[in-house]
Design brief:
rod-shaped; mainly alpha; 87% helix
Length: 89
């Protein structure tokens, strides 16, 4: 084998090693996010998922601006919370 072939093989091995390390980091980040989401889900459900029911106990009228604001808060929270998980997976 010539020196060029050995150098090319070394570059290939280095690239494969880097790809494997990136996969390990991605897997560990995904595992951490799943752990974080599962441990905080009990606090998240009453505050975000049932946001309308928290303030509308007596069936009083809620203006459209408040509804839009609540929908925006929920959307931004859910996007910020779960986007990384879907991106990594």
């Amino acid at each position: 084998m010539s020196a060029t072939a050995e150098e090319e093989l070394q570059v290939l091995y280095d690239n494969l090693r880097q790809i494997r390390l990136v996969n390990y980091v991605t897997l560990s980040c995904t595992a951490f996010l799943v752990y974080d989401i599962s441990t905080n889900l009990d606090r998240e459900v009453p505050l975000i998922w049932r946001y309308y029911r928290n303030t509308n106990i007596n069936n009083e009228y809620i203006s459209w601006r408040s509804r839009v604001r609540r929908a925006l808060v929920q959307t931004l929270f859910l996007f910020g919370r779960y986007y990384a998980l879907f991106y990594l997976a």
